[in-house]
Structure formats: C-alpha cells, structure tokens
Amino acid sequence: MGLGTYLRLARAGYVLAREGAFSLAEGQPIPPSARLLVAMARLIEKRDVRKTGRVTRLANALTRLGPVYVKFGQVLATRRDIVGFAVASDLAALQDALPPFDARLVPGLLAEALGDKAASLTEISPPLAAASIAQVHKATLATPDGPRIVAVKLLRPHIKERFLRDLDGLYVLAGVAERFLPSARRFNGRQVVDALARSAQLEMDLRMEAAAISELKDTLRDDGDFHVPEVFWEQTARAVLTTSWIDAIPVRDTEALDAAGIDRPALANTLIRSFLRQAIGHGYFHADMHPGNLFADRNGRGIVAVDFGIMGRIGRREQRFLAEILYGFITRDYRRVAERHLDIGYVPDTHTIDDFAQAIRAIGEPLVGRGADEISMARVLAQLIEVTELFDMKARPELVLLQKNMVLVEGTARILDPRFNMWTAAEPVVSAWVRRAVGPQGKLDLAREAAEEALDLVRRLPSIARRAETVLGRLEADQIRQSRRDPLIETLKWGTLVAMGLAIIALVIVIKGAL
Prior knowledge:
Elements: H1 3-18, H2 32-41, H3 54-65, H4 67-76, H5 80-83, H6 85-91, H7 106-114, E1 121-122, E2 129-130, E3 134-143, E4 146-155, H8 159-180, H9 182-185, H10 189-203, H11 206-219, E5 226-227, E6 240-244, E7 248-250, H12 254-259, H13 264-282, E8 284-286, E9 294-297, E10 303-305, E11 311-313, H14 316-331, H15 334-343, H16 353-364, H17 377-390, H18 397-416, H19 422-438, H20 440-485, H21 487-514
Parallel strand pairs: 5-10
Antiparallel strand pairs: 1-3, 2-3, 3-4, 4-6, 7-9, 8-11, 9-10
Helix pairs in contact: 1-3, 1-8, 3-4, 4-8, 4-10, 8-10, 13-14, 13-18, 13-19, 14-15, 14-19, 15-16, 16-17, 19-20
C-alpha cells in the first residue's frame, strides 16, 4: 500500500471526525484504547453536527468523501447484521447525489464511447441528475421514425481508476472495524468491500444496466402496473446508456400527484404489489426502489422506474420461502413460518420448531389490532433478524438485498399514503401465490422441476464419470509420485538394488570358482 493510500485514509479519517461519524461508537462495547481514540476524534467535530442525528452525520461524511464511500454506505445498508438495523435503515436512504462533472466534457465522452453513432444525439441538456458513478442528460435522438426524446446516462470520467484507488483504503478500514467492533468481528469485512467492488464493476459497465432493463421489461410484459424505459442499443456502450425519456411525476412530489388527480393510496398498493410480483413471481426485481427512482404515470397506469444499476435475483426456493413467510405472518400461522426456516436450512435442526415458533409469535402477535400506520415491515424485519440470530441463523446474501428493498418500498409507500398497511397490500399477491404453489398447479410445477433436475443429472452422468476418472487418475499418480519421494521407500528401493547387485557379484564369483 503506497503513500497515496495512507494520505487518502488520513483525509477520510479527518472528514469522518469533522462530520461527527465517530459518535456511532457511543455505547458500543469497544476496547479502552479504541474508546480513547474515538474521544480524541470527536474533539475536532463540528459544533453544528451535534444538532443532527448520528446516522445523518455518517451519511454526510460518506457523501463528502466521494463516490466510493457513498457506494460503501449503500452496501452497509444491506448489512444490518454488521451495522445494526437503525444505522442500516437510515443508510438505505443515503442519497447517491454528487455535483455533476463539467458539461463541456460531454460531447467528447459521447464521441469516444459511441463513435459515429454519437452524431444522432443532439440538443443535449445540462446534467439533470448526478450520482456517484454517472450523471443523466436529456437529449434528442434521430431515429428512422422521427426524433425521440431520450435520457442519456454517462459515466464520470476516470471513475474506474478512482474506485480502484480508494478500494485499497476501504480494505484497511474494514480490517480496523473488525478489530475494534464486536458486531463486525463476526463477519469478514473484506467480504463487504468485495461486494462493493463486484457491484461497482457491474455498475461501471452501462451495457449491464441496459441488459437488466431489457430482461425486466421482458419479464414484466404482462404486468400493466410497472413500467420500464426502452433501451436504444446503438447509442449504448460501456460508458453510455440511452433510454426513452420518462415523462412522469416523482412519487415524492405529493402535491403534483394530488394536482394530477392520482389516487395516492392506490398507487402505494400498486407499488408494493408490483414489487412482490417481481420478487415472488419472477425472482428478478428492481433492487433500489427509493423515491428518487420511482415515478407515477401521468395517465394513471401505475409506476414507472428508472436506474437499474442494482438488481436482485432469488431462486425458486427463496421465492417460496418469502411467500410462505409473509403468508404465515398475515394468517398468524407462526408454526408455518418456523417450519419454513428449518425446511430450507436457514435455522439448524438442533433447535426445535416449537421454540422457534414461539419466538416468531413474539414478533407477530403485537401487530394484531394495531393501526395501519403502526405496522411496519421494517420493524418486523429487524425483530426477525434478531430472533434468527438467537437461533444461529447466518446472514443469507440472497435475501439481504431483498429485505433492504422491502424496507425501501415500504418507506416510499408511506410517502404516498402515511397510513399505508404493508400487510394488507401484500395479502392478495402473497395469498394467490401460496394457493398456486400448494395447489395442483404448484405440485405439477414441483414435479416438473424435479423431473428436469433428474433429466439434467442423467445427461451429465457421462461427463461426471469422465471427470471422476480423470480425478482418480490424478490422485493415483500423485500417490505413486509421493511414494517415490518417501525417504523410507527410497531407502528400501536402493537397498534392494544394492542387495541384488551383491547377490549377482557373489553368484559370478561362485560360478567362476566352480569352473
């Protein structure tokens, strides 16, 4: 690690201290030496930051430090098992908004990325939104059917180099956190930074986002409530993404929604049901549903989404698990919730279903009879995570992003309708899915999946046998080579050769004597 990395880390520590981020260590069981360092760091804290919330200070610090740290905060927002539910929930709302880069660079960047195809983009506006990795402009695209208004997303210049440079420092910070924070010690901090690196690599290739838009559009072909833009592939490259322009109302602009006569409670229900259909029905979902990425169609046709840099994917087992867990809470069937946790292997079978069901009941029963505005999916998830940790359930990477997004969706729905009831909104989708899954059609689907898996195994048996034969051959060869290198074997071998030589010499002497 070079001098530059240490200097960048020193700057990061200074910014974190000035913005009061070290206040997060208050009340934490950290070693005395670390407590002293925290106290010293807080001496240079700004006076005005004491007027803001603790997590707000952390969000401010990460924003000041730039793109890599903003993304790091967003990754931590998905790791409630490390930073705690309160911190993670607030970090989930961390706005990925930074000052735009110089608009005068745009024509050159477009020409470099698209070549001759860049000429078809004209009337490019100043940046309308700027995030940590890219910014968005409005433009006119010349097409065979006439001009189209489009959105052009451009990567920041040299963003990849900056990410790689700052990732070194984050690995060091992750190591420090593991050393001094007990909650982080249970997990590998390097894995968190690894997740950030993988996510950033995908986000820094806008062709991947274009593919995500295309796949989700195909997946939701029959869903009239959730809309995604159209991709213009000829004007899309690694550093440029061109899509149709979305002329819709931001869901957070409640006054504009009211002025347009849009039924906000109905829109909130549409949002959660569309998300659940994506997750439970298809296993592929938009995983960054914060208010800045969601719009209401002006014609009342549902939700329009943008920014598909973060997508979620879960398998059939996880889809069934999610549906049955939600259904269990909705119907107060807590044993069903417990059984599904054990069936899928999330909770070790060393624990009894009865004990686990009792713990689940302690979460669900307080919701009975509560007002709609008091029933929070975020609170239920927080308690569920605490309970599953008591029963030795490890964090499931395939569900973490889903859980984080469910909290985002609920928060967005409550902007639309302060009395939004997540459970009531979810019930039709979840119940329909469960009825289908446990009914005749569901059993046929399970049988078909089992048959397909068996057929696939049969098809792969010859190649598996060949690989097994190759591995066995290599093991046998290794054993032979090892035996040849064994000192005792070597001694016996050479002793045998010497004995044979002496025997031959003796035999020759005897024969000569006899003659």
